[in-house]
Amino acid sequence: MIDNPDRSGRNLARVAAVPVAALVFAALTLAVRARWLPLESVDQGLAADLNRTVAANPSAVSALRFVTQLGGPTFLACLVAVVAVLLAVRHRFRLMTYLLVTGAGALILDPALKRAIGRLRPVVEHPVAVGGGNSFPSGHSLGAMIVYGALLLIFAPALSGRARRALTVAVGVLVVAVGFSRLGLGVHFLSDVIGGWCLGVAWLGVTTFAFQLHRQQTGRRATRPLAEGLEPEAGDDLKPAGVPDLADVRHAVAGTAVAWILVFGALCAVGTPLARYHGGNGNILGDHTVPHWLAAHRTPFFDQVSDLGGRAGNTHMILAVGLVAGAVALLVTRGWRPVVFLLVTMFGELTLFLASAAFVQRARPDVPHMDGPLPTSSFPSGHVAATILLYAAIAVLAVPRVGRGWRWLFVAIAVLMPLWVAWSRMYRGMHHPTDVLGSMILAAGWLTATVHFIRPNRAPVRTLDAISRRVLPQTLRETTTSGKF
Description:
Pfam families: PAP2. This is Phosphatidic acid phosphatase type 2/haloperoxidase domain-containing protein. It is a single chain. Helices cover 73% and strands 0% of the residues. It is mostly helical. It folds into 2 domains: 14-238; 246-482. Helix 3 (58-69) packs across helix 7 (161-184). The radius of gyration is 25 Å and the shape is globular.
């Protein structure tokens, strides 16, 4: 007897989604291998049309490059590793094993299938990115579907019904955005992306089914993963402490929105005259003298040092450090404010940088560029702004939670890292001194706004000594206490 036909129908649809995804992937694989003409025609036509549209818009290229990193193997591997550590700290070893096994599937399936199928990547008229290896299926689409889907299933018990639905939509949008970024950058066909998604759904279904069987064998009831998560009893261990007040959320959203507009206006007001004066290469505050002097005094040693400095401020490193910082903040505080503070601070920096760079359109210094042509303009420096904001935000969170001696370490890092990145970007001929000034204006204005409106340290501060009582071994606990860590 069926008590609720609507619910039964939804459950049936969820169960059917996995074999349907597997069948679609199998059909696409056969069509790709057979070079089925209708599929080839659609794939080639869409790749050419998107390439013509995207290649003409440097800001779109930059945005797609950022989004595609969210599905890259390096970022996803770091994300899985950090979450696995958090799960281990919370003694949720079954969930940790599920995440590691599920994530390993993406690392194994992607290269194996690409090599077996052997499809070449798109050849477009105006290349804006390069992909390694073969084309089918899309590894970024596969990895994003598997990792973000697994995280959704793991953390679902920590969310209310409304929050779970919102997060499900957000994960879906993110997965679609990663897939679209591969199309927009011209490194995958549409069938590659759809194939990656379908394979990801099938693999998630297999690992989730295996997890449910394990629960039953150990005397636990089977769950509805999309509605309850994998382990409903883990909800208390997975959720952060405290629920954000709606009035606080509205205040933060309104305040940061106004601040974003004001900071953007300040950047445009400063950057536009600089871009127009002598074609962007006037000598205001050494904008001509400094890049030329640095270019004339390049040495192999400083070339290497500046290369490392540039990498320290690039998207990959900023994402990796930000991810670790967010995970540690969640572990230590179990509160939403520090994590939201980090997310809003870094996302705001990215959008402010892209918007102001697209509006100002300042030329790069007229010296040899060691990092080649870049899709964004010179003002402001995204590397420097991201570095300032990331390490300053970490210092804001860390200083109230560590001993007096350690505070100076976080402050020193927040000062020295941006100086290194700024020098490196000017040394390599990528930025003027006033571009760095623009980054400082961006960082100062935006960090002031996020600290004021989000108030990341408003909740009771849990020190590292307090958290160590729960997660650190006795010997290390004694060391941190005696050393005033």
